[in-house]
Every structure is written in C-alpha cells, then in structure tokens.
Specification:
single chain; 182 residues; four-stranded antiparallel sheet; 4 helices; globular
C-alpha cells in the first residue's frame, strides 16, 4: 500500500541554500536536502487500484508553468513548536493548481484536506525544542529569501510510513504548459 502525495521539487541550487540553514537548534531533526519539496496535496496510504486512479487523473491536469520563491522562515506549532519551515510565495497559478488537485482527490473519493494550504519546505522536525529556542533561531535566520525559480512540473511522490517521512521517490511527473511570453 503506497503512501502518496503530490508536490513540487526544489531545484538543487535552492536546496543548497536551504541546507546552509541546518544546525544551531537543539532537538531538531534536519530534513535531508534531497528530500526538500513543497507539498501540494497529501494523499496518504491507498491501495494500488486507487493509486492507479490518482495517477490517471493527475495526467489530465492542464495548467501553466509558473515561478515561486521562498520568503522567510517560520515554525509550525506556537506553544510547542514541531517544525521549522521555509515559507513559499503563493502566486495565483500555485493556488489554482493546488485547488484543482484537491478537487480531483475529492472526486475520486478521498476525504478533503482539513488543513489550509500553506506552501512551505520543511527544514526540520522538532522534539523538545522550546518556543524561545525557535524564536532565537528564527531571529538570526528569518530574513532568508531565494530568487524565484521556475515550476514546470509537479510530481507524485511516494514515501515510507515512518516518522519524518523520506526518502521520497518520484513515482510520476506531470508537466505544466510553458509560459507564453508575449
């Protein structure tokens, strides 16, 4: 039974910049750079028949390519922080792609995603890290930004059912239409 999700790959140069943010935070389990991604829609553990249906429906998506940038760091969990993330910009095309994927998953019978879409790259998962330690880490690195990078495809990832996810495997890739310049 595969555990699946859709996402956007992070270019190697951006991954290298993110990797430089590793360290200096007690209780952090840092994400490996080759696992950096922006999740579009978590699908979960499904059977092979449903996985085939998901892949077929994703192959029908027709959306334009776009660019996205990472702008600032943050954390999830206020009183008990559980993750350090790099936040992504939300150009309209990204929001529209994510919304379409959500509609597709619901049409084929998967439950709706209950969390608001907040595009990000998870840098670390935290255990026993205080809010003060997170605030100090973010105050030193929170101004992190990247140049916009092109997104010309989204992918179907699989992962093992384990704490922290990863390693992630690209099961299939779905191209986005080239941007028309005119």
């Amino acid at each position: 039974m595969p555990r699946l999700f859709t996402g956007i790959e992070i270019p190697p140069a951006i991954g290298e910049a993110l990797a430089l943010l590793r360290g200096g935070l007690p209780g952090a389990r840092w994400t490996e750079p080759d696992s950096y991604h922006l999740t579009l829609r978590f699908i979960g553990d499904i059977d092979e028949r449903m996985a085939d249906e998901v892949a077929d429906r994703l192959s029908r998506v027709r959306r334009p390519a776009f660019s996205v940038a990472l702008e600032g760091l943050g954390s999830f969990g206020s009183r008990r922080p559980h993750a350090i993330v790099a936040r992504a910009t939300v150009p309209p095309a990204l929001g529209e792609l994510q919304a379409e994927l959500e509609r597709i998953m619901q049409r084929i019978g998967l439950p709706p995603e209950t969390r608001k879409f907040m595009p990000h790259v998870t840098l670390a998962r935290l255990r026993g890290t205080s809010a003060e330690e997170v605030a100090e880490y973010l105050s030193l690195r929170g101004g992190f930004t990247t140049a916009a990078f092109p997104v010309d495809r989204f992918v179907l990832f699989s992962s093992r059912n384990q704490t922290g996810g990863g390693p992630y495997l690209v099961e299939d890739a779905y191209p986005l239409a080239p941007l028309e310049i005119g």
